[in-house]
Specification:
The protein is 25% helix and 29% strand. By secondary structure, the protein is α+β, with helices and mostly antiparallel strands. The protein has one domain: Gcn5-related N-acetyltransferase (GNAT) (Aminopeptidase), CATH 3.40.630.30.
């Protein structure tokens, strides 16, 4: 049904983290339509007409800060999609007058998301323990230190 609604190819395992975030986003947007910008986006490669992942914010800004998350389908990893999605989220966030910094969390062990965040200008902030007791690294990007602009050629919906 998703493929039909979006008129794109959707691989069976396009998402690993589950779809709970989309229900949460839908509920938040239904209750407060103006908050739509601060929730989920689907990432589509328009040249291949394929859903390649998702990204978004984990809610509206609080005290000038938002947190981002992103996922790229395994088939499309290590091709620059993660970096493009993060750059697009940065542009969305920093176009808002209410956002001064962006947080992101990665798994504690070395992984491609660390490279993505570093390439986008994030700096390591601290180690944190998630609700499920998993050890994570927290990264931050300050608006005052950010000067890049996105050259994303793919479409976020």
């Amino acid at each position: 049904m998703l493929a039909q609604n979006l008129n794109v190819e959707v691989l069976k395992n396009w998402i690993e983290t589950g779809t709970d975030i989309f229900k949460l986003s839908q509920d938040a947007i239904t209750n407060k339509p103006i908050s739509q910008i601060w929730w989920s986006y689907l990432a589509i490669d328009t040249q291949m007409n394929s859903l390649i992942g998702n990204c978004g914010f984990k809610g509206e800004p609080i005290d000038g800060r938002v947190e981002i998350g992103y996922e790229v389908c395994k088939t499309f990893r290590n091709q620059g999609y993660g970096t493009e999605k993060v750059l697009e989220l940065i542009n969305i966030a920093f176009c808002s007058k209410t956002v001064n910094s962006i947080l992101a969390r990665t798994l504690y062990h070395i992984n491609p998301s660390i490279t993505v965040l570093k390439n986008c200008g994030f700096n390591f902030l601290k180690e944190v323990i998630a609700q499920d007791k998993e050890k994570l690294n927290e990264w931050i990007l300050l608006k005052i230190n950010y000067s890049r602009s996105s050259k994303a050629g793919r479409k976020l919906l």
